[in-house]
Queue: 2 jobs
Job 1
Amino acid sequence: MSDNNIMKGGLGTGLLILSVIVLVASFGFVMYNLMSHGHASFNVSSSLPWGQPISTYLYFALASSGLGLIASLPLVFGFKEYYGLAKRAIFLAFIILVSGMAVLALELGHTFRMLWAIPFNMQIQSAMFWMGVFYAADLLFLLWKFQKMESGDWDSKATRTIGIASFLGVLLASGNLALIFGMMSMRPFWFDGLLPIYFYLTAVTSGLAALVFFTYLAYGFSRGAMPENLQRALTNGLPKLFAAALGLTILFIAARAITGLYSNNPEIHYVWTNYLFASPIYVASVVLGLLVPFALMMSASLRVNPAIQILVSILTFGGLFAERYFFVVGGQVVPLFKGTWAWDMIQYTPSITEWALTIMGSALLFTLYVLGERFFNLSATPEQPSMAESPERAGQATA
Amino acid sequence: MAKWGMVIDLDKCTGCQACTTACSMENNTLPGESWQDVLFYHEGEYPSAQMKWLPRPCMQCEKPSCVYVCPTRATYKDEEAGGIVFVDWNKCIGCKYCMIACPYGVRFYADEQPLVEPDIRDVYPGENGQMWSPPYQNPEQDWRRGIGIQPKGVVSKCTFCHHKVSKAPDGVADLDEDDPDLVEYVPACVRTCPPKARFFGDLDNPESNVNRLIGDKHGVRLLDHTGNRPQVYYLGAGAGIPAFSPRKS
Ligand code: SF4
Ligand code: SF4
């Protein structure tokens, strides 16, 4: 069965080479600009300090959390029909988080200083301190869990304990990430105690998009080429879950939008009327990136159609990327404490360097993905570990 | 130790920006990196429209949200230094979370696009780790308190001229620029203010002039609802910021 994984063949090599080229080029471009112009090569400013690099990091980190949550369905809650997806989900969660962290590292003023300054100063009042703690733990547990699966140990007591720890780690990491924004009472557009719920929902939605897309990609976008259990997961439970996650995401955005539009508070109201809904890109991202995918996934016949599944995952990718961007920027477009001195909302569009950083993160993701598909059997399940894996293992040993 | 406070009388302030200029000369800040600034607003509409202005340093909050969010303790409130909030440039990682969390918008990440061309950082390239090195700069430097010209990748802000006020004699109630013995210790913005609209003194000292002014002339703190509790008080009519509203045209 693993022979059908095209990432192990010539196409995989092609994608790998392409990803590495893009990765090296975008990294080189970003580094060159950072060295020569510093962060002046970004379009962020002191009045709008967090731009697309932060929203890209957020997007990746939450997609990772979403994948972690999806993987816990079989691994923690015993939904055995998703077993075939679990290992790929764990692997993707790991590499997406790594890619996100790489983007964040280049956004900071002093990346290496962070490595000692955060642990040694123990500022436990800061949500960003906890972000470091929880995402480091998350990364570690993902790696550990993957290593257990790799050694064929899916069900021992230790593995299950790691699974539960990892699940909690994901909940804490992404919930705390939400609170980095949600606890900022001086930024009313973000200030929301329920923001963790919103992050969980959108995390699962983007995780599903990633899982569906990369699973199809591994098998050349042909479901027939997939192992039996993957086909079953993609035709039964997963599409319904996808529809539900999309629906709940839309519901949450609608609730936030209605509250914001209703409120007289200019720091919320104008964000919705004059920034979000005034932007054709935002409107398109909601319609094409969330509403259309939801409508498609609600149809019992369409949601099992492979072409529709791929389309929906790509649309959702784009939709949620935009959602994260507008969420991060939207919290800052009304200048703080400037009142009527500010002529208008703060204008921000990402610079070429900031785009290159987003591209770099994506290229790193694709590079690690192809490597993962080539070196591991990401479709492995506990039921048939030895038989299915042995030919490939033998092949690897000689390669 | 004193608890330094500033009082700004809006009935006297003429909006001349001398404080802003003095601050940038004292602290060698870049164009746009206005640790101290005067904001100008319009309020209301014809026939009762008003023109207003408000000088704005860092409020050195009693409950500084910038300090609580900083993951490295680079931003800290130093009660020993009169409650001034400092940024330790040796610790700051440039995450900019403090800039998100400060309700008063008074923090600066100078590693950004220049406000005016030519970029003064290109004209006077930095030496000794500084972001730029002008032909003359204030010799006072203390990177652990964010005093001097900052290196790249860190956040800067008003220090209440700690390099001056820290040298004042112990127990002094007010730093008044009219007192020849104290004039050298007065923050640059206070010292320079032509109509004497700014006052600086010890909020913990019941005898201080700043306390008397706050009590007698109805001193208020801005954005009180945020709970940050500034150590900067405003006197006079119109202490407040008209809410943001996008212009029609
Ligand atoms: S005004 Fe802003 S920077 Fe100054 S102490 Fe308060 S929160 Fe911190
Ligand atoms: S930018 Fe520096 S001072 Fe501000 S929160 Fe981050 S580490 Fe602290």
Job 2
Amino acid sequence: MLKQQIDLNTVKKEYQEKADALKQRLIICAGTGCVANGAMDVYEALVDELKRQDLNVTVSLQKENGKAEDGYYVSPSGCQGFCQAGPLVTVQPQGWLYVKVKPEDVAELVKETFVRNQPLERLLYKNPADDKIYAKQEEIPFYRGQNRYVLGDCGLIHPEDLDEYIAKDGYLAAKKAYTEMTSQEICDTMIASGLRGRGGGGFPTGKKWAFTLVEESEKKYVICNGDEGDPGAFMDRSLMEGNPHRIIEGMMITARAIGADEGYVYVRAEYPLAVQRIQRAVKDAEAAGLLGDDIFGSGYSFRLVVMEGAGAFVCGEETALIASIEGLRGMPRPKPPFPAQSGLWGKPTVINNVETLATVPMIIHQGFETYRKLGTEGSPGTKTFALTGHVVNTGLIEVPFGATLREIIFDIGGGVTDNMDNPDPNGFKAVQIGGPSGGCLTEEFLDLPLDFDSVRNIGAMVGSGGLVVMNRSTCMIQVAHFFMQFTQNESCGKCVPCREGTKQMLVLLEDIMEGRADQGTLDLLDDLAQAVLLGSLCGLGKTAPNPVLSTLKHFRAECEAHIFDKRCPTGQCKALAIPEILADKCKGCTACIRKCPVDAITGERKQPHVIDPELCVKCGTCAQVCKFNAIVGV
Amino acid sequence: METDTKLRKFGRVCEIVDKYDRNPSKLIPILQEVQKEYRYLPEEVMTYVATCLDMSPARVYGVASFYANFALEPKGKYVVHICDGTACHVKGSGAIKEALYKKLKLSGDKPTTDDLMFTVEAVSCLGACGLAPVMTVNEKVHGQMTAESAEALIDDILAEEADNA
Ligand SMILES: Cc1cc2nc3c(=O)[nH]c(=O)nc-3n(C[C@H](O)[C@H](O)[C@H](O)COP(=O)(O)O)c2cc1C
Ligand code: FES
């Protein structure tokens, strides 16, 4: 039986008619953050309330359903980015954004919004900095500073509605690639666009495709790397959950560009919703004839398999990921040969990151010239970042390359917070960029325009896009230790420099944190870092020393305080802490004096006591027996 | 009788292996499905899978022990994951972990309670960093946790279990 080819224009027209017949639309953010805060309860409460008010409510614009004249459409979306303020509800076409919505707010929300036709002020976003209230999403400082080029549709469209994706010009780029362009033309367009891989390396995507195109083989593969293992990063997750068709379209174009007919989407096991959404999207695309044989009547085939990872960070590395798909232990192998020459089952393979693939359809659709207008010369386009840590507005953001950290952290992020989550104008200490392969940057780099090359020049990495802001109470040695612990845990053990080197570096860092270090420790750490950097097999080991080296470089004084003065300036390192009795809290009860095993505490009854740091063994007994919480630093 | 249940047990494994056409390269999805069935990978089941796929048990064990998501020991009814990714770490996930370890008398070396009720594990990044610190209980995400709210969550589960008992 000949399969009917899908007519994108008709689908678009039909969807548009339905959407135009609607009166208003409510979009409930159903990203992981908002769902954890109860977004689905809000969704149900809204549908119930609209029904109760006898308003014509619909929860789906699928083909089978008729038009909802003057109706209200309630739909979920992927992550809208502003996770801090969730659950989020957007009202279209007005563009109002309600924040922190609870099911009990729903009755009032419906009455104000739909019956009285005005925004419910109490649920609008209020900027903590100046108490100003914003009705429209686009005016809120968090959104105003961004350019949501790749993420845009993520928070708008229904992630499980293929028709809506098509109505937003989806699959037009794939159609163009399959029916109007040659493989060479697609590769040339990508090279001209200057798109660089978003998985961390920043390798030019067009070049990678061109290398694979020239390989002669009957079978080639495309792989989407959705393993996103960097702690502190969730951009790829949000794209897979919020706009899965975009990734499929990107993979279709890649396949056409290199001559592949089969593809794999490898998704991290920790992302069950992403797995489910991609699987659903693949099924819908197959049913519509977008995947399968004779795509758009071109004679070409493309099929997709979704595979769930099994929990190994190193599987994000391309050769390890390939081993994992083949059913082996996910261990990297030396390159060359590169996957372009010998990849999955020895066949030429292109492996690209989720965000890279999501950018591809837009470049084909709008042309590379339009794309190049964004970003910098060497790094065109935009980059998504997961902004987290001690910052007022945490969430998922997107800015053009060339934006500065100051714009991101202070304008979009709303500034730094203290440990109680209150804004702290002088609280900035560092920002960690690039995860376990990156580094911590200090205040002096806040005005540096961010792009692949500028960040690499200062010893860090744009990486996949985690930005973790740290306030002044964070101990940077502990942060370096944290990353070392991570890479040491995740090292697959295949090569010695990485397996043993990371372990020894971890021990040296512990020596610093626990007061056993001297100049020798520092020199050894430096030597070892160089050895691991140069000697490791894959990117995991090659970049593992970065967090330590950047800390040694940018936070020299803090390191030296730990090593030479045996003092942790932030008081976070327990072993270096010097217990102290707060005179204003001490009642002089002598309980601590009696319990101290080394008689290090002295003082008269009813007078504040003092601890002799020379005698103290930091056992913490005094703090335990003190009824007045007068003892700090243990 | 005992062999009967055992046969039935392996029958399910058989179905899973057949679903993947006994294809050795599908070892990981096969083990994932088998683990869904048993909630861990018992040794005899791994040996059985190896026979079905015509590979050595060592190869199956090698894969099972490499990936963090395969459990070689039984897990508790409630699997609690405390995120210790960067964002959660700087927002104090350590204190939450310590509180739960203390409450349930567990540690990094002993992650599961003797009554097989709870397994507590620290994991890196659950991908909900905007809500740091984060923990999940059987994959349900709980954000902006504190040591107290984490303990309260455990108490709620215990109370519910007591009600059902
Ligand atoms: C240890 C390690 C972990 C990696 N993790 C990821 C990851 O989670 N996601 C990703 O897209 N790329 C990851 N990469 C990079 C991939 O090896 C590969 O370069 C990338 O997927 C290529 O896609 P791109 O050109 O679109 O960036 C990792 C690399 C290393 C060395
Ligand atoms: S660091 Fe905890 S969810 Fe990402």
